[in-house]
Amino acid sequence: MTSERMLCPVCQVAFLLKEEKVPGKRVVCPVCGAVLTLTEENGSWVLRRPKDMSPEEEIRTRVENFARLRGYHFNEMKEPLIEALLKKYERYGDFYCPCKIDNIPENVCPCLETRQGSVERNGRCHCGLFWK
Amino acid sequence: MKSVMLYALSTCPFCKMAKRFFESRNIPYNFVDVDLLPEEEKEKTVAEVQRISGRRAFPVIVIGEEVIVGYDELRIREALEK
Ligand code: SF4
Ligand SMILES: [Zn+2]
After folding, report:
1. I want to staple B68 with a disulfide (CB 3.0 to 4.6 A). Which of A56, A57, A97, B61 is the partner?
2. Angle at CA A36, nearest 5°, toward A23 and A67?
3. Which domains does chain B have, with CATH numbers?
């Protein structure tokens, strides 16, 4: 079994995948918590966003994974923020930060500043989804 | 009474909390949901927000001369009382 560097299509960070590769296998990105599906395309392995999950399932699982990976907590702001992220998805096609105007890759939740430690610095992420 | 301006996004929970804060205390305030503005006005307003706050994130609250970036109840209260 060889480990391979795989690119996360959500946070665009490459990580080492040590698990055995089986088509359709669920993988969690260790950087952003995204749930991904291992897929074979043109003879090479790639990670794709899950096609068999509803947007709501996808974002809920992602933020729960991310919180678990980092040891962060949620509070009563979680549900309004999940709703807001789904609204962004509906309007702009992805889970862009509900509190930022720019619907760009670095603002896909969990956004770049959060992945770079803003929760450690401020006690919470900008929107108040993740808390230390 | 100091002038209060709230720059908000319609999707942002802290922006809603800021609106509720002013409403529940009957504090007169102006607000704009920047994401719902027509394109040209949106760009102008975002540029203004960026100029005063250094960021393109919301809410941004201007009380008198003071600019409060993010929802910070303590700072809002202090700015209102000053
Ligand atoms: S500030 Fe929080 S809720 Fe907004 S995108 Fe970043 S991590 Fe997600
Ligand atoms: Zn990722």
Report:
1. B61
2. 145
3. 4-81 (3.40.30.10)
